[in-house]
Amino acid sequence: MTSVEYLGSYRLTQSDDYFKLGRDSVLLARFATLRKGWSVCDLGCGVGSLLLLLSQREGDLDRVGIELNPGAAALARQNLADNGLAGAILPGDLRDLLAGDRFHLVVSNPPYFRAGSGKSGGQARMDDTCSVTDLCQAAGRLARTGGRFALVYRPERLAELFAALAAARLEPKRMQLLAYDRRKPPYAVLVEAVKDGGPGLEVLPVHYQMEP
């Protein structure tokens, strides 16, 4: 079954068959550095939610999405077309991507629970088909020197993430923890890294939101 959600002036068609838009993607789209005319790639773009959210901030973008599931990729193409947005949605496995050194910004809301961990989120949120190492290596190949990689991840896995970023020549530059309220520990973290960037990490204030 499909449903429609409105993101400002954009119309997002979603399906019960694919992972739906969540708060993480909304916050990631607000967090990522973005400039007019930038080339942007969403790794594991699903039905194109992040590309629409980024386009809300800046309409003049070169948009590319990579998606393994052919059905989700087809719906992402439809979402771009329905909103009059140019872009390419490429079907395939991000682990097979060759070097590109093209993009100003690579983004991803990846599966971030360790496979077999028993955590919530369902199979779509397990990393057995996309490890953090695979993800960062793909982003490192696609980002140009000075380009950025922004993603949402789990706080308890920050050590793994930073090691994978370093191996891919991506230097963490900005970080923000996300929490429901001050009584609870953070449930997610936003990180933005720069390819071949120098050392120095800006830690932003924790973003609190009311629990749904």
Give keywords.
alpha/beta; 25% helix
Walk me through what this model shows.
With 212 residues, this protein is α/β, with parallel strands linked by helices. Helices cover 25% and strands 31% of the residues. The protein has helices spanning 23-31, 49-57, 70-82, 132-142, 158-167; strands at residues 2-7, 10-15, 39-43, 62-67, 88-91, 103-108, 143-153, 170-179, 188-195, 202-203, 207-208. The strands form 2 sheets. Strands 3, 4, 5, 6, 7, 8, 9, 10 and 11 form a 9-stranded mixed beta sheet that branches. Helix 3 links the parallel strand 4 (62-67) and strand 5. The longest helix has 13 residues, at 70-82. The radius of gyration is 16 Å and the shape is globular.
Strand portion: 25-35%
Distance between the termini: 24 Å
**Uncertain stretches:** 121-126
Total helical segments: 5
Question: Biggest sheet, open or closed, and with what strands and sense?
Answer: 9 strands, mixed
Radius of gyration, in angstroms, nearest whole number: 16 Å
> H/E element string?
EEHEHEHEEHEHEEEE
What does this entry show, briefly?
With 212 residues, this protein is an alpha/beta fold. It contains five helices and eleven strands; from the N terminus they run ββαβαβαββαβαββββ.
List the helices and strands and how they pair.
Blueprint: E1 2-7, E2 10-15, H1 23-31, E3 39-43, H2 49-57, E4 62-67, H3 70-82, E5 88-91, E6 103-108, H4 132-142, E7 143-153, H5 158-167, E8 170-179, E9 188-195, E10 202-203, E11 207-208
Parallel strand pairs: 3-4, 3-6, 4-5, 6-7, 8-10, 8-11
Antiparallel strand pairs: 1-2, 7-9, 8-9
Helix pairs in contact: 1-2, 4-5
